[in-house]
Structures are given as structure tokens and as C-alpha cells.
Amino acid sequence: MADQLVRATAADNGIRAVGVVTTRLTQEARDRHNLSNVATAALGRAMAGGLLLASSMKKPGSRVNLRFKGDGPMGGLLVDAGLDGNVRGYVSQPEVELPPNAIGKLDVGGAIGSGYLYVVRDSGVGFPYSSTVELVSGEIGEDLTYYLATSEQTPSALMLGVFVNKEGVQAAGGLLIQILPKAARDESLVSLLESRITGLQSFTTMLRSGMGLPDMLEGLLGDLGLSLFPETQIVRFHCGCNQDRVFNALTMLGEAELQDMINKDEEAEAICHFCNTAYKASPKQIQALLAQMQLQSEV
Predict the structure, then answer these.
(1) Strand locations in the chain (E)
(2) Of the given ranges (93-97, 166-170, 263-267), which has the lowest mean pLDDT?
(3) Is 225 left (phi over 0), alpha (psi -120 to 50) or beta?
(4) How far apart, in whole angstroms, are the C-alpha atoms of residue 239 and residue 77?
(5) CATH code that applies to domain 243-298
(6) Residue 264 has what pLDDT?
(7) Contact, 258 vs 250, CB < 8 A?
(8) Strands 168-179, 156-165: parallel, antiparallel or unpaired by DSSP?
(9) Is residue 26 within 8 Å of 40, Cβ to Cβ?
(10) Which string of b and e fits 243-275 if b means at least 16 CB within 10 Å?
(11) Using the 8-state DSSP alphabet, how is residue 272 labeled?
(12) Does 4-237 carry CATH code 3.40.50.1820?
């Protein structure tokens, strides 16, 4: 199944539902960053979560940044996800691996540890909205659910999953169900949803069994007036870095250090944290950059 995002409503627009499949883009992140299994699960869950949160934003160009920072051996991770369906991210210590947790699953919580989740929503207009919450478990999904309940005060159920084995990422993605204010007053509806969500199989189990996002949403909300949006959005791992941006970043080294690199006939190399792409500048290119800096300083 192609990586995609599906939106829906139910209960006379009182429930907002979004589902996303991120199997291929999670595998791409794994390949780019040489991620261990537990790091793959952590970043994959966070990227799916970022896309689900960004899907509720309205203005083109809107983005969500998620930063998980903990005291575990993996340290943390950063994800940047857009309303346009593009997402990127990286892990502080991508090679970390841990034994399975008490229930036999990848120990993402142990890898991240205790700490904080920092969320920034940027609509491209005015100042970005930022919020910080303490990590509940480090398991990503529980932490994002806690953020939604405390910072955005929206009752939400969030399912995130990544199934990875020696062949690679076999399934990844998630579901987000939110009860909007007019429906939140209906206690029987809230109880019904809680019961159904609790009884669901894991997201990756459903996906690996052949269920698509519409099938999952139909099983959960089909008798509650489910209305699927006609557009299916393609999502992908994408980073906007390029050679020009890297060269501009070299100016921060200062004229003296750039001149020293030229004198030593050294290349400059910069690696993008988000996509692990390496960019190189030859001494001749550094010389041209230095000349441009000196010209601008004379103006």
C-alpha cells in the first residue's frame, strides 16, 4: 500500500478521524540514518504522529515540529511534518539497540527515557505556537495523546505503530480520533468510542492483515455516520536541503577559518541532520564564497 493520509468525520461532524500509512517513508528514514530497530520504531512513530497532528492545520505551508528529549541511551529525536504531507526527522543516537520490553515489544520508552516533549505549530503567519509537556512514557503515542489532552484540551485517541524485522519495515502508520466539543458532551458516545478503541488490534496488525485506512475507520466509526473525505493525500519523506543552503551555512564559519581551509587545500563537508545527505565544497568553491563575503562587507 502506498504511503497516504485519509481524513474523515463522524457523528454529525462531532468526531474528527485521520489515518496515515507511512511504511515506505519509515523505511527510507531507516536507510538514510542507518537506524537500529528501536530507533526505527521511535522515529517512525513520531513521523506518523507529526503528520497526523499537521493534518488538522488550515493554512498552506503549515508545519509541526516534535522534539522528544529524554535521558535514555537514544537521547531523543526531532520530527518536522507539514500539512503538505512531507515529513523528515532524525534520532540523536541512531545505533542504539535495547532488549524487548516486558511485553516483548521494541523498548522505545526505555530508549528515550524520562524527559520532555516540545511541540511547535507554525502556520506561517505570526509567531509559532509552542508547548512543552513532560513525557508520560517515552513511547511516543502516549506522550502525544497527553500533549493533545493537556495543551490542546482535545479528547483524543492516538494509535501509532511500526513493525520492523530483519527484512526492514513491514508496516507503519497510525490513527487519530478526536472528539470535538459538541460531541464531547455526549458521555455515551465517548464511552462507546473508548470501548471500541481499547478493543482494537494494533495498527500494524490491522495493516499487515490487508486492511486499508478506510476499512479501519469503517470498523471503528461506520455506524456513527462516517464520512470519508474524497481526497487521499500522498505522504513522503522529504527534506528541502540543497547545496546553496549548505554554502550559505559555511559563511557562519567566518572569513579567517574559510581562508585557512583554502590555504590547506581542504574540502568543506556538511551533513544535513534531517536526511543525512552530505554536501562538499571544494577549495575553489570556498574561495568564491569568501570573495563574495568580502565584497558584501565592503558595501
Answers:
(1) 4-10, 15-21, 63-70, 76-82, 86-91, 115-122, 129-134, 156-165, 168-179, 227-228, 233-234, 236-237, 268-271, 278-281
(2) 263-267
(3) left
(4) 16
(5) 3.90.1280.10
(6) 81
(7) yes
(8) antiparallel
(9) yes
(10) eeebbeebeeeeeeebeebbeeeeebebebebb
(11) -
(12) no
Domain ranges (residues) in the chain:
4-237, 243-298
> Residue 189 region, left (φ>0) first, then alpha (ψ -120 to 50), else beta?
alpha
Residue 244: its pLDDT value, please?
79
Which residues have CB under 8 Å from 217's CB, separation 6+?
A: 6, 8, 17, 19, 175, 226, 228
286 has pLDDT over 60: yes
Of the candidates 232, 173, 234, the residue with the CA atom closest to the CA atom of residue 204: 173
Domains 4-237 and 243-298 share a fold: no
**pTM for the predicted model, two decimal places:** 0.90
d(CA 9, CA 178): 10
CA–CA separation, 155 and 136 (whole Å): 16
Collapsing DSSP states into helix, strand and coil, what is residue 242?
coil
Q: How many residues does the chain have?
A: 299
The residues, ordered by sequence, that sit 6+ positions from 95 with a Cβ below 8 Å of its Cβ are 34, 36, 39
Residue 33 has pLDDT above 60, yes or no: yes
Q: Tens of pLDDT along 53-104?
A: 999 999 999 999 999 999 999 999 999 999 999 999 999 999 999 999 988 8
Q: Could you tell me what percentage of the chain is helix, strand and coil, using 3-state DSSP and rounding each to the nearest 5? A: 40, 30, 35
Q: Yes or no: say if 135 and 116 are a contact pair by the CB < 8 Å rule.
A: yes
Enter the C-alpha cell of residue 287.
574561495
pLDDT for res 298: 65
